[in-house]
């Protein structure tokens, strides 16, 4: 579960990015975060994996206030959160297999079990046959699927997707959505910041609309809306 209470975020340059957020997201929900550029969507998601710390307010993830985590506690906490971005962010010199194995938290695991986990997650995204490729040899949609596999390899309870279809053509975007829906169906909470009116209006989910750092609309099976 995610719970934010009275969250304010002012960046060091004085920009007020979040202006009093109160929100609860239950385990297993699929939530779109929509709003114009600069509305605060990315900042909202960054608070959830301790990329940013709010100026004020509490951010609870699975019943723990993460604003007070010590730096040394952050890596362990982050194992439980997967993140994917618009620009994939794969390591260019590593193969698909290595990109995913690199993200795996290896705690006294045998090479055989590591291989099994990586291949399982590659199978989930339909890329088992591309394990030896490097990112440059893949299409954008395939690269995003690798990024999703990497985000899921530690079985996080939450997957954050910041405009995951922003660099993809419509057909490929629908493929990525299908994978995200499958991941959600297995119980993972998904938060997806997006500018895609088509996707939000076609695949109905909870919609949180932001404006000037505030939540201006929060609807179950909502629409993208006219004002954003
Ligand atoms: N690291 C930063 N330092 C200073 N200001 C920032 C920083 N990151 C974001 N901002 C500012 O905070 C506000 C909210 O930005 P944020 O990236 O959260 O918006 P967004 O809704 O995700 O936008 P987009 O749709 O363009 O990704 C904007 O005014 C932005 O310029």
From TrEMBL:
Keyword list, A-Z: ATP-binding, Cell cycle, Cell division, Cell membrane, Membrane, Nucleotide-binding, Transport
Membrane topology: Peripheral membrane protein
GO MF annotation: an example: ATP hydrolysis activity
Entry keyword annotation includes NADP: no
Family: Belongs to the ABC transporter superfamily.
Function: Part of the ABC transporter FtsEX involved in cellular division.
Record's subunit section: Homodimer. Forms a membrane-associated complex with FtsX.
Protein name: Cell division ATP-binding protein FtsE
Protein source organism: Gracilibacillus orientalis
């Amino acid at each position: 579960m995610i719970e934010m209470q009275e969250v304010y975020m002012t960046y060091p340059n004085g920009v007020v990015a979040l202006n009093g957020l109160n929100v609860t997201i239950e385990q297993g929900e699929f939530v779109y975060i929509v709003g114009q550029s600069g509305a605060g969507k990315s900042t909202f998601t960054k608070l959830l994996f301790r990329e940013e710390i709010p100026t004020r307010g509490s951010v609870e993830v699975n019943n723990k206030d993460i604003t007070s985590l010590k730096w040394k506690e952050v890596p362990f906490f982050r194992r439980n959160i997967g993140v994917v971005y618009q620009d994939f962010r794969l390591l260019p010199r590593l193969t698909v297999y290595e990109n995913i194995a690199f993200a795996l938290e290896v705690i006294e695991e045998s090479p055989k079990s590591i291989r099994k986990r990586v291949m399982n997650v590659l199978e989930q995204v339909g890329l088992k046959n591309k394990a030896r490729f490097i990112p440059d040899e893949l299409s954008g949609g395939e690269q995003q699927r690798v990024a999703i596999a990497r985000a899921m390899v530690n079985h996080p309870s939450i997957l954050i997707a910041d405009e995951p279809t922003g660099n993809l053509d419509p057909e490929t975007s629908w493929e990525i959505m299908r994978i995200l829906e499958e991941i959600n169906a297995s119980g993972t909470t998904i938060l997806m910041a997006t500018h895609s009116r088509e996707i939000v209006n076609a695949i109905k989910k909870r919609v949180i609309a932001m404006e000037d750092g505030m939540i201006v609309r929060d609807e179950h099976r909502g629409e993208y809306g006219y004002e954003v």
